[in-house]
Design a protein that fits this description.
alpha/beta; 6-stranded mixed β-sheet; 5-stranded parallel β-sheet; globular
């Protein structure tokens, strides 16, 4: 790609000797030092944590009834359906997490309800429908006589659709892990781990894991009904968890560990004896054995996702994952493999076209890459946008006018949907009866840029938009694309100031070629399964060179050419006389530098070639090998959010503040600029002290907000205004803000709305005087002004909710970027 990457190596302290020895207990064939460094660096710092992290048998998983009253309500409703023989529909989603979640409920609830007669499932079509419930699908289920819908991986914010189902006599149980609604919807139960504090062991569950917890609770409630053990579902849980890239901590890690074990055990069986012949056949087609998390993230996950990307309808994937008919599963696996081959080919074509368009851009003056094409298939735009964003270090938005509609938002694809996606936001203004006038596409970001905030500022130019800080889907009028491109670039340039965007690759450890091989592989394998919050270790190898390099087009399972390049090589350095094999996906051998170089790679085991090898991530000549140590001037951030009894005594920050005197933020921010102000203040103090030993700490100590409904806030504001008018009392803006619990900016919107209701607000010194003279003539304008205030309150509440839960790693990424 056209931009020089910036390399960083994660700063870490040496773990104590007792910890190294404790890790060595699990790696008797090696020193354990590398694994100990990584574990210590990633927050595993006592024996109990270490034991539970490595050995799933030592971990105590949470009871499904940790979900409290909502789980009891869900089980009671399912028991009612069981006793009265009601018809139930599972409503899933079309990505890998949604497909596996549907499969878990199909197999799990299928132990209690007759499949196809008493139990059915519905998965929206990616190319025709969006994520979540929709009225047309609900109508279809009502005609089939369904009295209960159980969602999985979706549904939390579908309040209107839930109300509609209720009007048709259908109850809804929501199981989901995405954005929470502002108020509890009128459901029979809502089971969503986002209601837990983020430290809870269930907080990071993906959709499939939440579905599993519901089935687990039903198994415990009706212990003598099911014929198959609950553990038979764990392989599906592992596939969904890892494909969805959720943070693998707490119960997520435990379930993934258990599930990978079940997956491997089943794959070792003859095809006719496998519990899941479809999964086994998919593993064979992608030449994996199911014993590694990468077999899912690079093998099973992309294939399941490919079906909806190419065909739209992915319903048959549930049959593929759950049927025991070997012949039928082989047929479906081959259809899936063909879809994945088609996805690869389309993705490769789009990548080539995007690369060509990039040559026409001046990246030195481009902050956000926005590209469009009438021929691009929408199903692969998110994948390509993610790759471009990673390689250029810039947020990337790819738009297509092919097959226009408003259904596919490029989200929920497994690579990023775990980051708590927001509900799609329909924008006000005119409707668009002619869908051919709309472009739709996908956006992907980099750690230093909050994509949601960036795109939301241009909402007036969009038709619809939904997403989260790292990924989004959007649609807009084709004629608005140039204006949108210019506006979003100007906005990010202003936000960045003099800072330039640079693609960054991070290494965790420095090793030599002599270190590579079985011993290091088994040592690093202690960290598996890897995922969000616990990434695959990246190894820096310095002053090395390549030999015996060659490349070829990768073929599909039928021997047909797929335009996908793979370079293979041997790597050497001065530490050993022996070379070590490796490969570089998507690159030609000619792209390998000649002579001495540095590289960043992952160590892997090739099951079918039965060899250890490295997978190259980045490479450059040694002449460009200056490295930055990450966080060298980044504030040391303490995460004290949502801790009731944490020490939060405020101390004034001075120029000689040290790491023992933290700056403390107790007010929850509503945007990144609020937080950046504190980060820059912290950096200024650090830079004014002598050395990194006096690095200024920043403690984020706000609590999860307890919001009132926006309508109630408006009524409170009106009530206060009437009281002040009647008593002729003065009030300060600070008093109003404290009483109502909103920001100063939102209060200004509320004051404008008050004026349309006939209130007059005048400033007297530092106070406000409010008087009321009702005026009916401005009723329509008043309604619009109140609607704007309510929208501002909802947006502010969402932002506070986001900052109450945003991962510390994201805050650190923003801090790291701003410190450059």
């Amino acid at each position: 790609m056209p931009e020089q990457q910036q390399w960083t190596i994660t700063a870490t302290e040496q773990p104590p000797e007792w910890f190294i020895q404790a890790v060595k207990h699990y790696t008797p064939a090696s020193s354990g030092l590398y694994a100990a460094q990584l574990l210590w660096q990633r927050g595993i710092k006592d024996r109990q944590q270490l034991t539970a992290f490595i050995n799933h048998k030592a971990y105590q998983p949470a009871s499904p009834f940790e979900f409290g009253q909502e789980m009891h309500l869900a089980i009671a409703r399912l028991q009612q359906a069981y006793n009265t023989k009601e018809k139930i529909a599972i409503w899933g989603d079309f990505d890998a997490d949604g497909i596996t979640a549907t499969s878990v409920l199909w197999d799990g609830l299928g132990q209690f309800f007759a499949q196809n007669t008493q139990l059915v499932y519905y998965i929206p079509n990616r190319l025709k429908e969006s994520h979540g419930l929709n009225n047309q699908g609900i109508d279809n289920l009502a005609k089939q006589g369904c009295k209960l819908i159980v969602t999985c991986d979706t549904g939390s914010t579908n309040v209107e659709e839930i109300i509609y189902a209720k009007q048709l006599g259908i109850d809804v149980i929501v199981t989901d892990h995405h954005t929470l609604p502002a108020e509890r919807p009128p459901v029979a139960a809502i089971i969503n781990p986002r209601y837990f504090p983020k430290e809870h062991q269930l907080f990071n569950l993906s959709g499939v894991a939440v579905a599993y917890k519901l089935v687990e609770a039903l198994y415990q409630t009706l212990p003598n009904v099911a014929k198959y053990p609950l553990e038979d579902l764990l392989d599906l849980v592992a596939v969904g968890l890892i494909a969805d890239l959720v943070q693998l901590s707490g119960d997520c890690r435990y379930l993934a560990q258990m599930g990978i074990q079940r997956l491997q055990e089943d794959f070792k069986q003859p095809a006719a004896a496998r519990r899941r012949p479809g999964v086994g056949r998919l593993l064979e087609l992608c030449q994996k054995s199911g014993d590694r998390p990468t077999d899912i993230s690079f093998g099973l996950g992309p294939r399941i996702n490919a079906v909806s990307r190419i065909q739209g309808d992915a319903s048959f994937c549930v049959e593929l994952l759950t049927s025991r008919d070997v012949k039928r599963c082989n047929e479906l696996a081959e259809v899936t493999e063909l879809a994945n081959a088609r996805r690869k080919s389309l993705q490769k074509d789009v990548q080539a076209q995007v690369a060509q368009k990039l040559t026409q851009l001046d990246l030195s003056t481009t902050s956000v890459i926005v590209l469009e094409d009438a021929q691009w298939p929408a199903g692969v735009l998110g994948l390509v946008a993610g790759q471009v964003a990673q390689e250029t270090g810039r947020p990337t938005i790819l738009l297509s006018t092919e097959g226009l509609g408003t259904g596919d938002w490029g989200l929920g694809t497994g690579e990023d949907s775990s980051q708590s996606p927001l509900p799609l936001i329909p924008r006000g203004g005119p409707t668009f009866p002619n869908p051919q006038s709309l472009a739709r596409g996908s956006a992907r970001s980099v750690n230093s840029v909050d994509l949601y905030q960036l795109v939301k500022e241009q909402a007036h130019l969009l038709h619809r938009f939904g997403g989260h800080p790292f990924a989004a889907g959007l649609s807009l009028l084709v004629e608005n694309i140039p204006l949108f491109t210019a506006a979003i670039n100007q906005q990010l340039r202003q936000s960045l100031g003099s800072t330039t965007l640079t693609p960054t690759v991070q290494a965790d450890l420095t090793v030599t070629v002599a270190d590579l091989g079985k011993e290091l592989f088994l040592e690093l394998k202690l960290l598996e399964p890897c995922g969000m919050g616990n990434p695959v270790p990246k190894l820096l190898i310095q002053n090395c060179w390549f030999e015996n390099s060659w490349h070829r087009n990768q073929q599909d399972w039928q021997g047909k050419k797929v335009q996908y390049i793979k370079a293979e090589f041997d790597i050497r350095d001065d530490s050993s006389r022996s070379a070590f094999p490796g490969l570089w996906w998507g690159h030609y051998k000619d792209e390998l530098p000649v002579g001495r170089c540095d590289c960043i790679a992952e160590l892997d085991y090739n099951t079918f070639k039965k060899r250890y090898e490295i997978r190259l991530i980045a490479v450059r000549s040694s002449a460009n090998s200056a490295l930055n140590t990450q966080l060298s001037l980044t504030p040391y951030i303490l995460d004290l959010r949502n801790q009731e009894h944490s020490a939060r005594a405020k101390r004034p920050a001075t120029a000689n503040s040290t790491q023992h005197s933290a700056l403390i933020i107790e007010d929850c921010p509503t945007n990144w600029d609020d937080l950046r102000m504190w980060l820059r203040r912290c950096l200024a103090i650090s830079r004014s002290t002598s050395g990194l030993d006096n690095q200024q700490q920043l403690a984020i100590a706000w609590s999860k907000p307890n919001h009132q409904p926006p309508n109630q806030i408006w009524l409170t504001l009106v009530g206060i205004a009437k009281y002040l008018s009647r008593t002729n009392q003065l009030v300060t803006r600070g008093q109003l803000l404290e009483k109502i619990g909103i920001s100063d900016q939102t209060l200004l919107v509320g004051i404008k709305a008050l004026k349309y209701l006939g209130f007059t607000v005048q400033r007297q010194d530092r106070s406000l005087q409010i008087t009321w003279n009702p005026n009916d003539s401005a009723e329509n304008l008043a309604d619009e002004a109140v609607a704007r205030f309510l929208a501002a309150v909802r947006e502010e509440q969402f932002q506070q909710q986001y900052f109450a839960e945003v991962p510390l790693s994201t805050i650190v990424a923003i801090a790291s970027y701003d410190s450059k």
